[in-house]
Amino acid sequence: MTDKIAVEKLSAAEAAGELKRLAKALTEANLAYHRYDAPEISDAAYDAMKARNLAIEARFPDLKRADSPSGQIGASPAEGFAKVIHRVRMLSLGNAFEADEVREFDTRIRRYLGLGDEAPLTYTAEPKIDGLSLSLRYEGGNLVRAATRGDGETGENVTANARRVADIPARLNDAPEILEVRGEIYMAHADFEALNARQAERREKPFANPRNAAAGSLRQLDARVTAERPLRFFAYGWGEVSAALAETQMGAVERLAALGFPTNPLTVLCDGPEALLQHYDRIEQKRATLGYDIDGVVYKVDDLALQARLGFRSTTPRWAIAHKFPAELAWTRLEAIDIQVGRTGALSPVARLSPVTVGGVVVRNATLHNEDYIAGRDSKGEVIRGGKDIRVGDWVQVYRAGDVIPKVADVDLSKRAEDAVPFVFPTTCPECGSEAVREAGDAVRRCVGGLICPAQAVEKLKHFVSRAAFDIEGLGAKQVEMFYKDDQLPVKQPADIFTLKERDKKNLTKLANREGWGEKSTKNLFEAIEEKKKIPFARLLFALGIRHVGEQASTLIARHYGRWQDFVAAMDGACGFSGPDWDGLLSIDGVGEVMARALVGAFAEPQERAGIDRLVRHLTVQDAVRPATANSPVAGKTVVFTGTLERMTRAEAKARAEALGAKVAGSVSAKTDLLVAGPGAGSKATKAAELGIETLDEEGWLRLIEGA
């Protein structure tokens, strides 16, 4: 896969092929982000692709394509809006990600201007708002036009909508005859939360993050919809002007503020790159408490005469740069630590955070793993984070990579309150009061209450109806919680699901007469339950939620035994953890002693076995089909899928691989034989490259399995 080859090692043919792929991928990403306000890849993945495209073009300038994304700004305007040609182009900014790149930015400017290292050179530094760029044109002090950036030359006319934004003045006093004000439309965190609450009340789809909400709200064909949305505006620049606003960037921003535009109070003057970097650190530390999203800090040469001398490249000004925050990192406050009880009784600590956007997703919760992690130790008792423990009220660093659950990575002790106390991990279950024990060698403390623990029972039921298990339409997590607490139609165990219809007939309080239900929804639920009475062996085994027995292991076990009855008989025969049936279980590739003991133990425990037997009496369990793998090129291999697949869903790809005798894993390790990586592949692809694991794109994967 060429995008994993170092640029300096690419052949001309490989470079041409990759430039073609990158042009297509980046154009699609631009359209998704700028036109449709629905980004499909993370900012980090986009920045990485764009940087690679530039690097390849620098090495092979003759191969630069006419549709090269390095010459693109945003995306062309969408249909439905009148087009506006910008008198002065709305350019994007170059990016810096490391401190040395900021120093290099300063060096380039000094070299271009012929200034020595000691010559004074002042910059402005301001937060980079994560919103939608907007240009406001005033003539004679009156707002006459508002336009989005579009592709930099042509934007969308959103004048009617902009007039509904409270922060945007309709009339200016003492302004130049012609003044185009440039700035960013955004949505504050509190307003975003309120908007999504209203969306939920109306049973409409919630917005993913404030940026999408702001962009989608401004780009409404009906301005009345925009008027209902809580949009805000920060001014930071200008386009065409009939008279200069000031002689410096800071002076011009102050003039805009005097005219009545909101400007960011964190905009400051800095003498040189080290001062810029210090301000960057200050803003990053304040990021979670600003009340709105930012994704970096913008640096601009303050002297407007020097800006004019520096001029522009094709798509970016030489006198400005955006210093981006790490896409998957942010600092925020830890408001509380809650303990959740899972289906296996595990007590899992969850960090409740002041909301912060990380990697394009608003993060309010993060995992704290276990009690050792909170105390500053790893599973072996070794010190982590320099031994810093985690306390409620701490300022913590949160990270998120791809689809991984957010985690707390670090603690800023300089901001710890003097009265902060160490967190005491509970030794009793917060749900049922049973003892919570931690076995030797186990990093997790578990409730011993079993089925008497409501949290375990509810989580087991949620797992039972999850997508990879029984996947009963109309019976999700919310409905499970409702039925578990229901006095008339209780569902305490999986078997109770399959008696709902019969019990409802005998019940005076019909389900169809209750709030949130009706004749149609009730009928649909009962029909969906009836459909799932016929279930494949592997799905049933996975649905039971036995500890250590995941989806992949369930498939392997089902294929080994073939029939449910044979499997149950083998579990009974292995109850002493010895003998032929025990040995047969351990002989299955992928089943170790820990998993085997959990399986046999579940079928030997009287209450659990009774529940399983009662459930199976309602079902028709389909025999497992052993795959024909004689001609399979991936039989016995461990395959990992990552990134976006375009010709099949991830579920289809996984099913196909397993049908060919492959084992599909969720993470890359030394045991991985093959990685199939689509666009947007991240840390898994990096790890595979480090381990020397064979990597294919989707086309390569399809060619590999073709005919098998």
Short précis:
This protein is 36% helix and 19% strand. With 708 residues, the chain is an alpha+beta fold. The strands form 7 sheets. The protein has a 5-stranded mixed sheet with strand order 2-11-10-3-9. It has a 5-stranded antiparallel sheet with strand order 14-13-12-15-16.
Q: Spans of 5+ residues with little confidence (pLDDT < 50)? A: 74-79
Give the helix proportion (percent range).
25-40%
What's the count of strands?
A: 24
Structural class: alpha+beta
**Average pLDDT across residues?**
87
Q: Categorize the overall geometry.
A: globular
CATH superfamily of the largest domain, by name, is DNA ligase/mRNA capping enzyme
**How many structurally independent domains?**
6
CATH fold name of the largest domain: D-amino Acid Aminotransferase, Chain A, domain 1
Give the helix tally. Answer: 25
What is the architecture of the largest domain at the second tier of CATH? 2-Layer Sandwich
Could you describe the largest sheet, including whether it forms a barrel?
Answer: 5 strands, mixed
CATH C-level class of the largest domain: Alpha Beta
CA distance, first residue to last residue = 22 Å
Kindly provide the radius of gyration, computed on alpha-carbon positions and rounded to a whole number of angstroms. Answer: 30 Å
Query: Widest sheet: strand order?
Result: 2-11-10-3-9
